[in-house]
Amino acid sequence: MVRLTTDLIAKSSNHFKNKRSHSLSQYLKRLTHLNFSNKNIEDIGDLSMCRNLTVLYLYDNQITHICNLGFASNLTHLYMQNNNITHIENLSNLQKLSKLYLGGNSITVVEGLEQLKELKELHLENQRLAPGEKLLLDPRTLLSLAESLCVLNINNNNIDEIRDLAALRELQHFSAADNKLNDMEELEDVFSHWPQLHQMDLSGNPVCQKPKYRDRLITVCKRLEDLDGKEINDLSRQFLINWKASKEAKKKVKDEQIMTGQLIAYPLTTDLSMAPHPGQNYSHTKVLHKRKPLQSLRPRMRVRSGPSDSDSEARKYRHSALTLFYS
User: Fold this and answer.
1) What is the pTM of this model?
2) Each residue's pLDDT tens digit in the chain (327 positions)?
3) Nearest Cα to Cα of residue 192 among 161, 169, 226, 159
4) CA-to-CA distance for 50 and 287, rounded, in angstroms?
5) Burial code of 230-255, b = ≥16 C-beta within 10 A, e = fewer?
6) Please, which contacts does 89-94 make with residues 24 or more away whose CB atoms are closer than 8 Å?
7) Of 92, 43, 100, 87, which Cα lies nearest the Cα of 72?
8) How deeply is 99 buried, as exposed, middle or buried, from its count of CB atoms within 10 A (0-12, 13-18, 19+)?
9) Residues 273-278: contacts with CB within 8 Å, 24+ apart?
């Protein structure tokens, strides 16, 4: 098992070997950036001598637990994507942490970040989840990040609702592509709480196929500059905002007319020409009188002459035939 320790740092050709003029303890105390990405590391040992560490790169390893980082009170950037981490833990002492990268792990619940009051970026994309599972975000963690978080990436995590994310009112960049979001009304409600939002990616969600999907989101997110990788110019945004305002104003006037009785709903008829006009008394009798006589709707018939050559007998035969037909 490869474990990250001060001895491993000292043996690294990219670190202590090139700085022999200093003792190991002096070197470790001055160390601010440490890069041990893609080194098959499975565990983090005692690094407490690296008290001034600000940036730590540990991505593309085999780490299963976040541990032994309590000393790093000056750490601002932590890169631990593409490991085997299942829980977010032991980060409460990292009071200055600004960027946290945990994508490509096996995390199912986003929690344990309540003490990170300066966290601005949280990257959680592409978690390796079991079939049927989805990434869950603890509401307590979301509330604790409400004043600081500006960037959130939750791409490809089987997420089907984001109602609790409304608490993140300082969010500027939001990525939730390739999930299962489908409720347009929910999205509009959540995004209305994000006045600072500039960039958003929802591509690959079922909601993208909804009618007026793009137009509706642009009118809700009035500062949005980029949606699903496509730029939004000021002219298009202003046109849509004006269109929505006009539509809402017309609806308001119509609702007021209905409430005050100015707008009257007339009974529906099958003949539009028979619909009453304003100020005209509606009468079923008058309408019925306008109909054509029944006789005019009957088909014309040619009646053969009777077998007799006499005109009187022919008339009698025609009369008998008509009487029989209309009886």
Assistant:
1) 0.73
2) 899 999 999 888 555 555 555 688 888 999 999 999 999 999 999 999 999 999 999 999 999 999 999 999 999 999 999 999 999 999 999 999 999 999 999 999 999 999 999 999 999 999 999 999 999 999 999 999 999 999 999 999 999 999 999 999 999 999 999 999 999 999 999 999 999 999 999 999 999 999 989 989 988 888 999 999 999 887 666 656 666 656 656 666 677 667 777 655 555 444 444 444 444 554 444 444 444 554 544 555 554 544 444 555 555 555 555 555 444
3) 169
4) 95
5) eebeeeebeebeeeeeeeeeeeeeee
6) 89/65, 90/65, 90/66, 91/66, 91/115, 91/116, 92/116, 93/69, 94/69
7) 92
8) middle
9) none
Cβ atoms of 121 and 102 closer than 8 Å = no
Nearby residues of 215 by Cβ (< 8 Å), 6 or more positions away: 240
The Cα 219–Cα 236 span in angstroms is 10
Token digits for 324?
Answer: 């029989």
CB atoms within 10 A of CB 202: 21
Ordered domains of the chain (ranges, CATH):
2-250 (3.80.10.10)
Q: Which residues of 261-290 are buried (b: 16+ CB within 10 A; e: fewer)?
A: eeeeeeeeeeeeeeeeeeeeeeeeeeeeee
